[in-house]
Amino acid sequence: MDCTHLATIDVTLPPGTDGCEECLATGGRWVHLRMCQGCGHVGCCDNSPGRHATGHHTATRHPVIRSFEPGEEWFWCYPDALAFELDDVPPAPSHS
To answer: Tell me: the pLDDT tens digits for 69-83?
Structure first.
């Protein structure tokens, strides 16, 4: 199965912050970070207490996120429930 939302991915987007935007605003904590490929929002993963990346998808319907972890190059499409990597894209941005 292929992601049917590839056209929505913008690999040139800068990240919105260097951490989960909602956790930074509320003093929360996160486990891993994900970056929305529709707008650059950085949210925490589903293993984090806030699950803000999924919350952002639910609120905006932006379909694809990318790992925001150093050395990880994978994407996740929410509607297609599909993890994938892409060839010939710039290296993934990541937090420090």
So the answer is: 999 999 999 999 999
Other CB atoms within a 10 A radius of the CB of residue 47 amount to 9
CB 53 within 8 A of CB 78: no
Name the residue ranges covered by the structural domains of the chain: 8-84
pLDDT score for 24:
97
Report how far residue 47's alpha carbon sits from residue 42's, in angstroms, rounded to the nearest whole number.
Answer: 15
Which pLDDT value is given to residue 78?
98
Two structure tokens written together for 6: 């590839």
Low-confidence stretches of the chain (pLDDT beneath 50): none
Taking domain 8-84, whether its CATH number is 3.30.450.20 is answered by no
* Positive or negative: CA dihedral 9, 15, 84, 55: negative
Give the number of other CB atoms < 10 A from CB of residue 55.
14
**In angstroms, rounded to a whole number, what is the distance separating the alpha carbons of residues 96 and 5?**
29
Structure tokens at 96: 């420090």
